[in-house]
Amino acid sequence: MEARAISRYIRISPRKARLVANLVRGKSVEEALAILALTPKKASPILRKTILSAAANVRHNSDEAIEAEDAALFVKDIWIDEGPSLKRIRPRAQGRAFRIIKRTSHFKVIVSAE
């Protein structure tokens, strides 16, 4: 049994979020949450919340009784995809303007029971 959770339009660069996602891919949910609790990155609490949501979805959607323990579940896969970018302008010298691109991400987590 597996379930997924998606967090969309997260205001963080996908490149930076993938650094955190690579730490927990393939780990048990319990171990992944412990790693994220000690990771000092902006994406950590967002990814933690998404993993918890996917784990709750597995428990809620399963037909057979799955243990309430997170040790029985593992993070099967994580995708960090690029969302729409916000375009902003930075004023520069002599009337010019430089573009600032503020990137967003979509997090998709699949959690599976062993």
Question: What does this protein look like?
Answer:
There is one protein chain. The chain has 114 residues and is α+β, with helices and mostly antiparallel strands. Helix content is 34%, strand content 35%. The chain has 3 helices and 5 strands. It has helices at residues 14-24, 29-37, 43-61, and strands at 2-10, 73-82, 86-91, 97-102, 105-113. β3 (86-91) and β4 (97-102) form a beta hairpin. α2 (29-37) runs antiparallel to α3 (43-61). The longest helix has 19 residues, at 43-61. The protein is elongated. The mean pLDDT is 90.
Q: Using DSSP, what is the number of strands? A: 5
Q: What general form does the structure show?
A: elongated
User: Count of DSSP helices?
Assistant: 3
Sheet having the most strands:
3 strands, antiparallel
Uncertain segments: none
Beta-strand proportion: 35-45%
Termini separation (Å)?
8 Å
- Please trace the helix and strand order, writing H or E for each element: EHHHEEEE
Multimeric state: single chain
Average pLDDT reading? 90
**Widest sheet, order of strands:** 1-5-2
Cα-atom Rg, whole angstroms? 17 Å
Structural class: alpha+beta
Share in helix: 25-40%
